[in-house]
Amino acid sequence: MQPVGSGCCSRMPSIFAYQSSEVDWCESNFQHSELVAEFYNTFSNVTFFIFGPLMMFLMHPYAQKRSHYVYVVCTLFMIIGLFSMYFHMTLSFLGQMLDEIAILWLLASGYSIWMPRCYFPAFLGESRSQFICLVITATVVSTFLSFLRPTINAYALNIISLHIVYIVFQEYKKTRNKELRHVIEVSVIFWAFALTSWVSDRLLCSFWQWINFSYLHSIWHVLISITFPYGMVTMALVDARYEMPHETLKIRYWPRDTWPVGLPYLEVTDDEKSC
After folding, report:
1. Global pTM exceeds 0.70
2. Which of 15, 108, 220, 228 is surrounded by the most beta carbons within 10 Å?
3. Residue 190 CB neighbours (<10 A)
């Protein structure tokens, strides 16, 4: 695939003289710097380094009650930002693989922690430890196979993502909790806008270049970073219905509940009522 902005690859520094990725985004390459292939797509990943640590701090009380693996999820989110920055800076095959594999491990981690036991495969019963082992094994295999056949990773990402969407949809139909329904709805709206930006950058690149606005993928980075806190809180609330029956979880918003826009997080209070 010929990179956008013909002739630009001849200016690529020798330190990046290794296998290039077949994936290239709409933003012109090396337009603003000889060291950074896609300037806006690279530095728009800064939002991962803002929301990741912030959610780690805001979700600390919940993590103390439920699972310290919440910190792993937030750390993987920041690693995605780092690898995505490297990928868009170099447009290398290695960068592409690191970016996609980090996303795979993030989804697998959230899947392992928050998937309700009632959705486990029947042969596992309700053993979360066995379910986690199964997910980790499948993720490790997919990771190795992705270097041999990169399309394997795309299938793995889609399978996990679609199953998570299915679970959330099922829980949305079950619950009468207005807070949970609201956070699911907002998550879907942000995700839909983010996905639209991603698809538009891939399929309508000629149009965006014609109007001199080829930055839809950088907007994807910002929107998916905002979607992450909502998705995390959604899965945590779904999980809490099954795993934390004696605690009451309240959705709060940073920096203030009264602001029209904010990052959601969970406040946990003991509930003395029996299940």
Report:
1. yes
2. 228
3. 19
pLDDT (tens, 9 = 90+) of the chain, 275 residues, equals 444 444 444 344 444 445 787 888 999 988 888 889 999 999 999 999 999 999 999 999 999 999 899 999 999 999 999 999 999 999 999 999 999 999 999 999 998 999 999 999 999 888 999 999 999 999 999 898 888 877 777 777 878 888 888 999 999 999 888 989 999 999 999 999 999 999 999 899 999 999 999 999 999 999 999 999 999 999 999 999 899 888 888 999 999 888 878 899 999 886 554 33
SS3 269: strand
Q: Which two tokens stand for residue 189?
A: 């709206």
Dist CA 161 CA 86 (whole Å) = 24
Whole-angstrom distance, CA of residue 112 vs CA of residue 157: 14
